[in-house]
Amino acid sequence: MVPSPLTLLLALGAAAAALAEPLRFVDCGSIDGSIQEVNVSPCPTQPCLLHKGTSYSINVTFASKIESQGSKARVYGEMLHVDVPFPIPEPDGCKSGIQCPIQKGHSYSYLNKLPVKSEYPSIKLIVKWELVDDQDQMLFCWKIPVQITS
Predict the structure, then answer these.
(1) Which residue in 7, 10, 72, 119 has the most C-beta neighbors within 10 A?
(2) Is residue 89 in some structural domain?
(3) Model pLDDT for residues 77-101, shown as the tens digit of each residue
C-alpha cells in the first residue's frame, strides 16, 4: 500500500514538531516572571551541541508578574559554579521581541541569538540566561547544559 500525500505530510509535520520540542531547563530564580517555554534552535537533543562559528536562535515565552519600562539580558557560561559573562549581540529585551513597556499579567516571546565564536574552547558547560527588569530583578532565569564542539 502506497501512503497518501496527506499521510506523508502528517508524518513530516510530526517529525518537524519533534525537532522543535521545548527544552528541559532549570529555572534559576525567575522572580518577576514565570517561564512557559524555552526553545534553542537547532538543538534536537540535550545537552545542546553548539558548533563553533554558528549562531543559535533563542525563544523564551514568559509571563510578567510586574510592570517595567525595559529589560536587559545577561548570559553566562557556568563552569565549576563560576559564571563567566558571555556577550550577546543585543542585550536590550525591548529590541528582542518584547514590546515595552512590559505589562503585568501579559505573556511575551523573547527572541535572541546565541553566537558561538570559533575561538571558544571545546567544553561542556551550563548556559545561564537572565532577563532583568528596571529594578534589576529577574523576569526570567534559565539554565541548560551545552557542549561546545568544532
Answers:
(1) 72
(2) yes
(3) 998 889 999 889 899 999 999 999 9
Q: Quick check: 124 and 83 in contact, CB under 8 A?
A: no
**70, 53, 89, 73: which is closest to 128 by C-alpha?**
73
The total number of structural domains that make up the chain? 1
Task: State how far the Cα of 50 lies from the Cα of 26, in Å rounded to an integer.
Answer: 19
Cell 499521510 sits at which residue? 7
For the record, the C-alpha cell of 39 comes out as 526553545
pTM: 0.83
Domain assignment of residue 18, yes or no: no
Residue 94 carries which DSSP code?
G
Domain extent for 67: 26-148
**Do strands 48-51 and 138-149 pair parallel, antiparallel, or not at all (unpaired)?**
parallel
pLDDT tens for 33-80 read 999 999 999 999 999 999 999 999 999 999 999 999 999 999 999 988
> Residue 119: how many CB atoms within 10 A of its CB?
7
In a domain, 132, yes or no: yes
d(CA 84, CA 91) in angstroms, rounded, equals 16
User: Which CATH number goes with the domain that contains 94?
Assistant: 2.60.40.770
